[in-house]
Amino acid sequence: MNNWIHKSNNDNDIVLSSKIKLSRNFKDLPFPNKLNYIKGRENGKNIYNVLINELNDEKITLYEMWNSNENINKEYEEKNLISKELFKNADKASFVVNEDETLSIMINEEDHIKLQCITAGLNLEDALKNAIIIDDKIEKNLNYAFDEKLGYLTTKLENLGTGMKASVVIHLPALKMSDEIKNISKHLDQVGMNIKGVHSEGTEVYGNIYEIFNKVSLGITEEDITSQLKSMVLNIISEEKKFREILLSKCKYELEDKVYRAYGILKSAVLLEFKETINLLSDVRLGAELSLIDIDKNKLNELLVVTKNLSLQNRLEKSLDAKQIKFERAKLVKEILI
Questions:
Q1: Residue 256: which H helix or E strand, with range?
Q2: In what residue span(s) does the Phosphagen kinase C-terminal domain sit (predicted)?
Q3: pLDDT at 8
Q4: Residue 197 and residue 136: Cα distance in Å, rounded?
Q5: Band of residue 202 on the pLDDT scale cut at 50, 70, 90
Q6: Is 284 known to sit in a ligand binding site?
């Protein structure tokens, strides 16, 4: 598996990554909210031992929430490899991550297992294939809670059936600028899908990066879920490209100015807020995707991750106050871009 950050794709990088998440429970254990910490910790060890024995070609690490560095745990949350909910069960929760961070398995979050596989670009098929391979290896050794009519039994009704959430992370600046995101959201809701901003404060989305995902997994196969999501994403890509062409034809100079101003600030700023950084990176990414500026998009991918607060502090191996974080962020942006 290759980390999406360092891999180009064939969709002009409009799609950053694809993810498959599987929710599973064991039939001989109560759900995590009813599980005592002794059984919960034992569950984590059992799952990890299965993975160590079965995944011979993967280097994996187990992090026990009650026994690992909190800043490391929160950095994985920043990377969307674990959830905020996992922290609520810190006395019994753990997670497993592989070396290139394309695989993460949360243990004793809402369900006993939440397994997710990530691929670069619009590649739901490989993400699903990787997830099923690992899921089958776990199921070979441990007994899942499964019902012939309801499918995999989960704590949330929306996850019954396949127990699968498929999602795509996508860059949609033109649709955001033209206010078409609202129409996209309405249409997705009508077909059992959803869209949300990856970086947001309240209702405000910044960075123009969105996640599109299915809402229902009962009464439909894994392959149908991924096929329908991919079809919808391709339509959205087509719409995004159409509105980009409109922007280019109507205000090319203004667009070029926006792109190069953003690049200039990123290369010269002494202090950078994360929100400002993400917005500027979106402008530069749009310019790169439209061939208005020549820049390695893998660098832009990397900056989306490493400029977050805890990633910065863990990278430097020290705690920073708010001003120091802004200074070190600007410094790191320059180092990577230049």
A1: helix 222-268
A2: 14-243
A3: 54
A4: 32
A5: confident
A6: no
* Residue 212 tokens, joined: 């599109």
In the chain the domains, ranked by start, together with CATH numbers, are 4-240 (3.30.590.10), 247-337 (no CATH)
Secondary structure class of 275 (helix, strand, coil): helix
Known binding residue 200? Answer is yes
Flag whether 75 is marked binding. Answer: no
Strand pairing category for 94-98 and 60-64: antiparallel
Residue recorded with tokens 């705690």:
319
Joined together, the tokens standing for residue 59 give 């280097």
> How many angstroms separate the first and last alpha carbons of the chain?
28
Alpha-carbon distance 158 to 186, whole Å? 19
What is the crossing angle of helices 274-289 and 322-337, to 10°? 20
Does this model's pTM top 0.70? My answer is yes
Residue 288 labelled as part of a binding site? no
Tokens (6 digits) for 171: 């860059």
Q: Is 166 annotated as a binding residue?
A: yes
196 annotated binding-site participant: yes
Burial class (CB in 10 A: 0-12, 13-18, 19+), 314: middle
17 is in an annotated binding site: yes
- Please check if 198 is assigned to a binding site: yes
Cα angle for residues 68, 313, 201 (degrees, 5° grid):
95
Q: Does residue 168 have a known ligand-binding role?
A: yes
**Which pair of structure tokens corresponds to residue 207?**
């960075």
Say whether pLDDT at 1 is over 50: no
Q: Residue holding tokens 């879920």?
A: 225
20 is in an annotated binding site: yes
Q: How far apart are CA 255 and CA 202, in angstroms?
A: 28
The answer on whether 96 is annotated among ligand-binding residues is: no
Coil, helix or strand for 24?
A: strand
**CA dist., res. 182 & res. 270, Å (int):** 36
Q: Distance between CA atoms of 16 and 123, rounded to whole angstroms?
A: 10
Q: In this structure, what token pair is assigned to residue 210?
A: 């969105």
